[in-house]
Design goal:
Low-confidence stretches: 200-208
Mean pLDDT: 83
Distance between the termini: 51 Å
Radius of gyration: 20 Å
Shape: elongated
Order of helices and strands: EHHEHHEHHEEHHH
Strand order of the largest sheet: 1-2-3
Length: 208
């Protein structure tokens, strides 16, 4: 910028904790880049979850409060500078499904996303799940120790089963999780056995 050659677009990859810690610096950078005709794209923050137990399992070293505050900062940057100056709503990490996720925690996660991070709705899918890349990672060893690892149905690699039996029933029935579980959260329905029965009925009648 000082040399009269501002970048048309500046990509920033970071973490929610760093966004919170350096919010003032981030805002100054967006303002200066915008004044020079550029645009900042903040991506791959790696929220992963809005349930503290999940963040601890992933060893993220962060808190739900930091995740929520980072979301608020992104929304404030968009409000203050506009989409022509900053893009911070795409390409972030979210792991909704993993071996230890309970149905109640999934509903809690989706409810917070609905309230604090609606821009993450596009990441809500059955594909938003933990990948067990190999046998040498701490998360794999934990899943193996808990008896939650199984061979992938694709014929190679590893997959997992859910500790919560209700998740084992519900997730395979959910072709479009954003349109079913997120809807159940908005209606404040209880996460119980009746929810699984309703999901089974919806699936049988092609409503999923």
């Amino acid at each position: 910028i000082d040399q009269g050659m501002p970048p048309d677009r500046l990509y920033i990859r970071s973490t929610p904790a760093l966004v919170v810690r350096h919010r003032e610096l981030l805002e100054r950078c967006v303002a200066r880049l915008s004044a020079a005709g550029g645009r900042m794209q903040i991506m791959q923050l790696g929220f992963e979850s809005f349930v503290q137990r999940h963040l601890d399992i992933f060893n993220k070293g962060t808190t739900v409060e930091e995740n929520i505050e980072a979301c608020r900062i992104l929304r404030e940057l968009h409000r203050k500078f506009g989409p022509q100056a900053v893009e911070g709503y795409r390409g972030h990490g979210l792991i909704l499904l993993h071996p230890w996720c309970s149905l109640d925690e999934l509903q809690e996660n989706l409810a917070i996303i609905e309230r604090e991070a609606p821009f993450l709705r596009t990441a809500i899918s059955v594909g938003s799940r933990l990948t067990l890349y190999n046998e040498f990672t701490p998360i794999f060893r934990k899943a193996m120790a808990d008896g939650l690892v199984r061979r992938s149905s694709a014929g190679f690699g590893w997959d997992f089963r859910f500790e919560d039996r209700r998740m084992e029933v519900l997730v395979p029935l959910t072709g479009r999780m954003a349109g079913t579980l997120a809807g159940l959260v908005r209606e404040r329905r209880p996460a119980d056995e009746d929810l699984v029965r309703r999901a089974s009925t919806r699936s049988q009648f092609g409503l999923m």
